[in-house]
TrEMBL record:
<keyword id="KW-0812">Transmembrane</keyword>
<keyword id="KW-0732">Signal</keyword>
<feature type="transmembrane region" description="Helical">
    <location>
        <begin position="318"/>
        <end position="342"/>
    </location>
</feature>
<feature type="transmembrane region" description="Helical">
    <location>
        <begin position="441"/>
        <end position="463"/>
    </location>
</feature>
<feature type="transmembrane region" description="Helical">
    <location>
        <begin position="217"/>
        <end position="239"/>
    </location>
</feature>
<dbReference type="InterPro" id="IPR004240">
    <property type="entry name" value="EMP70"/>
</dbReference>
<keyword id="KW-0472">Membrane</keyword>
<feature type="transmembrane region" description="Helical">
    <location>
        <begin position="292"/>
        <end position="312"/>
    </location>
</feature>
<dbReference type="GO" id="GO:0016020">
    <property type="term" value="C:membrane"/>
</dbReference>
<feature type="transmembrane region" description="Helical">
    <location>
        <begin position="513"/>
        <end position="533"/>
    </location>
</feature>
<protein>
    <recommendedName>
        <fullName>Transmembrane 9 superfamily member</fullName>
    </recommendedName>
</protein>
<feature type="transmembrane region" description="Helical">
    <location>
        <begin position="384"/>
        <end position="406"/>
    </location>
</feature>
<comment type="similarity">
    <text>Belongs to the nonaspanin (TM9SF) (TC 9.A.2) family.</text>
</comment>
<feature type="signal peptide">
    <location>
        <begin position="1"/>
        <end position="22"/>
    </location>
</feature>
<dbReference type="GO" id="GO:0072657">
    <property type="term" value="P:protein localization to membrane"/>
</dbReference>
<feature type="transmembrane region" description="Helical">
    <location>
        <begin position="354"/>
        <end position="378"/>
    </location>
</feature>
<feature type="transmembrane region" description="Helical">
    <location>
        <begin position="475"/>
        <end position="501"/>
    </location>
</feature>
Amino acid sequence: MASRRNHLLFLFIILSLEAITGDEHTHKYDDGEEVVLWMNTVGPYHNRQETYTYFSLPFCKGTKKDISHYHETLGEAIQGVELDFSGIDISFKVNVPQLEYCTLDLSQDNHDALVYAVKNHYWYQMYIDDLPIWGIVGEIGESKDEFYIWTHKKLDIAYNGYQIVDVSLTSESKAKLVPNSKLSFTYEVKWTESKTPFEKRYEKYLDPSFFQHRIHWFSIFNSFMMVIFLVGLVSMILMRTLRKDYARYSKDDDLDDMERDLGDEYGWKQVHGDVFRPASHRVMFTSLIGTGYHLSSVAAFVIMFTIMGDLYTTRGSILSTTIFVYAATAPVNGFMGGSLYARQGGRQWIKQMVLSAVLFPLLVCGTAFMINFIAIYYHASRAIPFATMVAVTSIVIFVILPLTLVGTVLGRNLYGAPNVPCRVNTVPRPIPEKKWFMEPLVIIILGGVLPFGSIFIEMYFIFTSFWAYKIYYVFGFMFLVFVILAIVTVCVTIVCTYFLLNAEDYRWQWTAFLSAASTAGYVYLYSLYYFFFKTKMYGLFQTTFYFGYMALFSIGLGIMCGTFGYAGASAFVKKIYSTVKID
């Protein structure tokens, strides 16, 4: 009994010590406790993704004992977070007057490296208690051939109780860069008490005047009105047109065979024996549909998690959450793609399952691998470590693939039986000639115009937050736009499908998917405009990074929109053919 009491006492002491000992993970500090200043990355201001480790430039460290940092999440590693200890001595609530922490011998190589950084407007990022701080390396003199570097860092840190709630940096003491001279780097720390709650300390980094601008609200309202208009228009046109079609087909049913043969039959009813014919390239088609459902569920979950948890306040959290949700929702891919493949009579279900599981990860890894080569050549911090590549590959092989298999088996067994209202003819019906604007290619090109119109304003805000220096936090807006995009895409695709079937062309499945997916083409074209007219990016690495990942984003968006379109068109086709009398 005494031994048990001693164990409980020991456990209580340990828990008590943990409660009063603070660090940047608990965000709680005792008076005089060490506060770590991490140096992250440095790079050209206009190329946000072209970053290098802070000490890749010839900066010197403080004398304090080095502390190592490891990537805490996959998101940190993939985003190129490279935290190095500054060596600067900072303690909680302890003011530090101007104090030298290191001296740099400015050799010719060091001089040239710093001059290059100043010429290209290099900035750097630091972290204190997970709060980001930005500073500029130096500036160009008035004569354009003189270059200066800031050698003094003044840190103003605000605290509320035992937590840090604000950090700001002031760069001072401009020193001219002269070869074979010495530079003395100093720092200063001033602590002030603040009434800012810890929960609101990140609000200073947000930009409500930009993201909650009147134009943003107007774009949401405009898109919402477009939804109401489209839904009303589609309902009115289709119901009115379909009512006439039903009346005509009912009249045709009352005619005898001779009169029907002599009559002028046309329209979507004539392809009832082919409209439910399996799509060409079934394995690829169903894999794309499964991937689209998968990406849609990931987007919805991540947006909701971010709204509830403010994931944007923590380094790499959104990306880490996305990877986790993508892996966890893999059964959705298998269920939807596998069941559709079974309903279309496919027999190579293992091939379909594997392709469905690895299709999008292969696109992501292929793009990242190509960009990684350039990042390694540039020695950029964006170069993904080999261990991270192995971790991502392991997730695909040992998590996503088995879960997709589970979903496929469930989908084939629970929802794999054909459920079409019309039987399929053995011999395909010839497709008659039609006007040029009824051709599938024209429908595909025009199908993405309205969906893109409903989201292009939001694309500007998303692009600016990712490619410029804004933190996107209005995920409520993003969720509304996501819903609006889905509704507009479904409505437009239903209209496109009706026109195609009315022209007696039964190749609606790929047409529905691609007409909705063409939204991504317009998004990529918009990204070209954004690159050349809204940014000042330059260089091989940044350009490749931009267009590579914009292509990946557009492909993912296209697969998702294509799935929305196919799902809506499929429900529409089944509905109209289930309500007509077929001999």
